Amino acid sequence: MPALASSSRTNSAVEQGGHPQHVQLLFDDPICCGMTIKNLNIYAKKKTILSVSEVRLPRTGVVAVMGPSGSGKSTLLKAIAKLMDDNLSHEGSVDINVINGSNKTQSARSHFAMVWQKPTVFPCSIWDNLKIPLRKRKLDRKQWCALMERALEKTGLLGELGEQWWKQRAQRLSGGQQQRLSIAMGLLKDANIFLFDEPTSALDPMSTEKVEQVMCDLGETKLVLLVTHSLGQARRVSDYSAMIHNDGEYGVLGEFSRTDDLFTRPASAKSREFIMRETGWRQAKN
């Protein structure tokens, strides 16, 4: 978890619906801050579907994004990565601070690796899947094998695939292995921000555990944003948590804090109600 700046003040701005936010602005120091989102409003055919007044995300660590279905969690990831479809538009700013020297001249999308609910692998060999991000980086082919094996090792796949892994068909892997292959492709892309959209919703418990471990490992050196419906998963893997509330007809970022604080001392009544409804949890008396 990155060191925090001295300030942990709360943004008490009031949204259009009259509901105050409980968003802790934890990362005042640019050294700690990896991304700043400010005055972000996302629209579908001119109708607001999500509003984020201001939030600062760490340079490294895992941030869980939670909230009711339809509140705009997945749409937030798409807006951050500039993957909006033609039916959506947005205004506001997403400033990325997690930029290394090799990325300065690349597009904004080059900073991100997206891992969807359904694994994104191509109907070809593991080698051919892994070479796609390496070709885009225009690296010498002589480096490919070593980089691929390092990425597979970091995702726990190298030991599972055995000899001649490069010949195996990607679509013959299990769902959990395909998901980790997608993560390996993100590592080979040299992305410094990983966006996970419910990556384990279709996986068995053992595969889920392996993907969660990879996310925790990624959070040591990268910024990881995880949309999840599993509050247990959020508690297991995340350092910080963002809670999106339904505010009438659209979603609002209602709370952002350390994950332990959100689950044990939620500042927002809506966050408290959501946690109690999903888990049966009751807040301990102070």
Explain what you see:
The protein has 286 residues and is α/β, with parallel strands linked by helices. The chain has two domains: 177 residues, P-loop containing nucleotide triphosphate hydrolases (Rossmann fold); 66 residues, no CATH class. Helix content is 30%, strand content 26%. The protein contains nine helices and eleven strands. Strands 1, 2, 3, 4, 5, 6, 7, 8, 9, 10 and 11 form an eleven-stranded mixed beta sheet that branches. α6 links the parallel β8 and β9. α2 runs parallel beside α5. The longest helix is centred in the middle third of the chain and has 14 residues. The protein is globular. The two termini are 26 Å apart.
Beta-strand portion reads 25-35%
Please tally the β strands and state the result: 11
In N-to-C order, the SSE pattern is EEEEEHEEHHHHEHEHEEHH
Query: Could you estimate the helical fraction of the residues in percent?
Result: 25-40%
- Stretches where pLDDT is under 50 for at least 5 consecutive residues are 1-9, 11-20, 101-107, 282-286
> What structural class should be given to the helix and strand makeup?
alpha/beta
Query: What's the shape?
Result: globular
Instruction: Please identify the top-level CATH class of the largest domain.
Output: Alpha Beta
